[in-house]
Model the fold of this input.
Amino acid sequence: MSEQVSFYSHAKHLLAVDCVIFGYEQGELKLLLYRRTFDPQKGNWSLIGGFLNEDESLEDAAGRVLKQITGLTNIFLQQVFTFSQPDREPNVRVLSAAFVALIRIDQQNQESLEKLGAQWLSVTKLPELIFDHHEMVDRALAFLQNRAAHELAGRELLPERFTFIQLRNLYEAIFQRAFDPGNFRKKVLSLNAIERTNVKNKTESKRGAYYYRFKKKSDPNGDRIFKAGAAGF
Amino acid sequence: MSEQVSFYSHAKHLLAVDCVIFGYEQGELKLLLYRRTFDPQKGNWSLIGGFLNEDESLEDAAGRVLKQITGLTNIFLQQVFTFSQPDREPNVRVLSAAFVALIRIDQQNQESLEKLGAQWLSVTKLPELIFDHHEMVDRALAFLQNRAAHELAGRELLPERFTFIQLRNLYEAIFQRAFDPGNFRKKVLSLNAIERTNVKNKTESKRGAYYYRFKKKSDPNGDRIFKAGAAGF
DNA sequence: CCAAAAGTGTTCGAACTACACCCATGA
DNA sequence: TCATGGGTGTAGTTCGAACACTTTTGG
Done:
């Protein structure tokens, strides 16, 4: 990085983080949003975010915000893109780093959620969002799709135990398209990332569907879907 | 984004951009670096960067830096990741957004390059870099590999006209592995992204190899390598 | 005519797709 | 016993990997 003169001659900026928080519930991929409580855009739907402090990284800040809202730590959290158009917010210039977070809806603290007035809304019917938040959601979803295509998704979103149907529903929610049940099952099993329990879910059918669970991640590439390198060349 | 109180109560930060500038020359993928001319780390190898001004986006800032150095505008430029560890630089806290840039080495302005003391160094034998710049390079290279796996690369890096061997060499440089000449040719041709000229390069062989050029990008997905969706599911 | 690079063809297997079929069980 | 979802099997096709083969041309 090339600072020509002194540090003090350069502009300083307000920096925020905004979290695109995905959850999965009742067969739907959902997003945690809240109605903004102050101007500008008071009352309109917004991602959940906060400002960056002096002594923390963007990742720290996003984690802090998430802890505040959901009560959870150790959440899957990844930086996606930094939005920096000078006029992205009116009146004040604020840059914002967008993060994806994946959480299990049943795990989070319902109380702090309600205090904020936050709600889980289905990604298929999102309301209008403030500023460039919709673009943040788009990028976050693309990130999630990319991740789910390269590595078996669900570890952070599904409950501890889940059926194949639930896993497939999750994939169908992420990619907004149908997957062949048989082929999906075989492909996933071939990845060796999940294992069958001896418990069955009998609520959806008479026969009952086995619950599966994710294996411990021994091999860091255990559930990779593609081999390394440029496929096709 | 959720600002609890007034904007003025929040910390402001120095923000920089750093460019990972790739070029391709003599069968090698290269990086434009320079020796830092001031402390800290004076004399050590560094990416080329600059500070973010009040009224520009990060993309603008990166473009400005690139123009300064290479004399070129309309360069391929993409944000990769924002580095924000509080101690990533000693003494002062500076966040930095890393960018990938792709340029044709023969096109750039040699003069402004020399004034800065910048040099093209092969990615296979990089010197030690200051701060977290090496991590920036790693992320940028991953970005480039990803892009080259999904869409035919070379448009921004190769000269106007190039042989198949040159294109294959570029891919071998990007992925650091060999590709089968026959299979590579067939795969690339099937993408319909390049067209043969009637000129041959006779410098490398008696028979001569046809020069090819990239087609105009009519279809924005013209040179996509994968179909949409989650391959494998 | 032959060496060497350019370019084409052929074979094999892995893996994705589509879809038919069997299985288990409660009403 | 039969309707319903759970789960398995199979045939066809596509596509990449490996590698043999043909073409061109200057020396």
